[in-house]
C-alpha cells in the first residue's frame, strides 16, 4: 500500500495564486495576464466627480448599435451590460493570436456620490462610453474651513 501525502493547504495556495493574478491585472492592466479578460472584469473604467456630476468612462471597443450596451443607473450604482460582436467571417481555428475580447460582459460600478438617476446621459465615441450623472441636490455641499478652538495650540 502506497501512502500519498496530502497537503490540505494546496487548494488555498491555488486560490491565492489565482487572486494574485487577478489583482496583478487590476494594478497593471497593460501587463499581459493570460486567461483574464473582459468576461471576468468587465470593461475598464475611469470614475471621477466634479462639484455637480459623477462621470464614468468605459473602454468598450466594437459596439455597433445602441442595443449592444444596456446602461442601468440607480442612486449609487451604475451597471453596464452588453455584447461585443466579432466582425467578419473569420473562423476561430484560423486565428494565430487573439487578444481582443468578444462576447458578453457585465460590470457594476459603485458611484462615489448619490446621483439623480433619471437625469443621466450617455454618449459613445471612438470605443469610449461616457455616462454623465448629475449629483443629487443634497450631495452638492460646500466646503467650510473649521478653526481649532483649543487654546494649547
Secondary structure layout plus pairing:
Elements: H1 10-27, H2 38-41, E1 45-49, E2 53-59, E3 69-73, E4 77-84, E5 103-110, E6 121-125, E7 128-134
Antiparallel strand pairs: 1-2, 2-7, 3-4, 4-5, 6-7
Structure overview:
This protein is α+β, with helices and mostly antiparallel strands. The protein folds into two domains: 8-36; 42-89 and 96-139, Sandwich (Immunoglobulin-like), CATH 2.60.40. It contains two helices and seven strands, in the order H-H-E-E-E-E-E-E-E. It has helices at residues 10-27, 38-41, and strands spanning 45-49, 53-59, 69-73, 77-84, 103-110, 121-125, 128-134. The strands form two sheets. A four-stranded antiparallel β-sheet has the order 1-2-7-6, with no helix packed on it. The model is unreliable at 30-40 (pLDDT under 50).
List keywords for this structure.
alpha+beta; 14% helix; three-stranded antiparallel sheet
Shape annotation:
flat
Q: In whole angstroms, how far apart are the ends?
A: 78 Å
Give the count of helical stretches: 2
Query: Strand pairing plus helix content: what structural class?
Result: alpha+beta
The share of residues in helices is: 10-25%
Low-confidence stretches: 30-40
* Sheet with most strands: 4 strands, antiparallel
Would you list the SSEs in sequence order as H and E?
HHEEEEEEE
Question: Rg to the nearest angstrom?
Answer: 23 Å
Name the CATH architecture of the largest domain: Sandwich
- The number of distinct β-strands equals 7
* Mean pLDDT score: 77
Q: What is the top-level CATH class of the largest domain?
A: Mainly Beta
CATH fold name of the largest domain: Immunoglobulin-like
Read across the widest sheet, the strand sequence of neighbours is: 1-2-7-6
Beta-strand portion reads: 25-35%
The number of domains is 2
Amino acid at each position: 500500500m502506497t501512502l500519498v501525502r496530502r497537503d490540505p493547504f494546496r487548494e488555498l495556495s491555488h486560490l491565492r495564486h489565482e487572486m494574485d493574478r487577478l489583482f496583478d491585472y487590476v494594478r497593471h492592466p497593460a501587463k499581459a495576464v493570460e486567461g483574464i479578460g473582459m468576461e471576468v472584469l468587465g470593461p475598464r473604467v475611469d470614475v471621477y466627480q466634479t462639484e455637480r456630476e459623477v462621470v464614468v468612462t468605459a473602454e468598450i471597443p466594437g459596439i455597433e448599435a445602441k442595443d449592444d450596451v444596456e446602461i442601468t443607473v440607480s442612486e449609487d450604482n451604475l451597471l453596464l451590460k452588453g455584447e461585443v460582436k466579432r466582425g467578419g467571417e473569420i473562423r476561430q481555428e484560423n486565428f494565430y493570436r487573439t487578444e481582443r475580447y468578444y462576447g458578453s460582459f457585465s460590470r457594476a460600478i459603485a458611484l462615489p456620490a448619490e446621483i439623480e438617476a433619471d437625469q443621466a446621459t450617455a454618449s459613445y465615441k471612438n470605443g469610449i462610453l461616457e455616462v454623465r450623472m448629475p449629483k443629487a441636490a443634497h450631495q452638492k455641499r460646500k466646503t467650510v474651513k473649521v478653526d481649532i478652538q483649543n487654546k494649547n495650540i
